[in-house]
Amino acid sequence: VALPNTTKVAWGSKVALRGIQTQNKAIGVVLDKGPATRLNRVADLSPELFKEVCGPLSLGVCEVEVSYEEK
User: Over 80: is that where the pLDDT of 69 sits?
Assistant: First the structure.
């Protein structure tokens, strides 16, 4: 998972993801800080995580809810 620099989530943190349309849930690890915020994206997902949370890669983008516990 890649989250924008504006978030206070540290690299290596685990985040919970939920696909809005599918209601599928998964846990991801923050590995990067850099989705396209100019495109209004909250997170970049690995292909495997996208398939688990959203469905086929052919969707391209999907709405997800990202949550995490601050330490």
Answer: no
